[in-house]
Amino acid sequence: DVQLVESGGGSVQPGGSLRLSCGASGHTYSSNCMGWFRQAPGKEREGVAFVYFGGGSTYYADSVKGRFTISRDDAKIMGYLQMNSLKSEDTALYYCAAYDDARWAYWGQGTQVTVS
Asked: What does pLDDT average to over the chain?
């Protein structure tokens, strides 16, 4: 089985920065895309940023464009989310996920980001 583990969450003041990391272990998988999602209390989970392994294309939710940057290191099987100019509305539990077999097949346990 594949395990994803996030790290790098924490508390930061508005305008600050955090860098989230996502490491994969276990059996290799044929994912061609990894993504970051978040879920705030009382809200639905939303996709924040995705990166495609082939050509490196990226997608960002409008709410984070220009502030967040997603990247990955294929050799280390790591994914990252650099978050700058953080706002209070960015407060949420952040998850990384890997797309495989036509679905978001693997999920991490989440890392809390609090901006206040």
From this structure: 91
Tokens standing for 16?
A: 């600050």
Closest CA relative to residue 107, chosen from 59, 43, 15, 39: 39
Separation in Å, CA 115 to CA 9, 14, 34, 44, 104: 10, 6, 24, 19, 27
Tens of pLDDT, residues 10-67: 999 999 999 999 988 876 566 778 899 999 999 999 999 999 877 789 999 999 999 9
Give yes or no for a contact between 79 and 72, defined as CB atoms under 8 angstroms apart: yes
- What backbone torsions phi and psi does residue 56 show, to the nearest 5 degrees? 80, 15
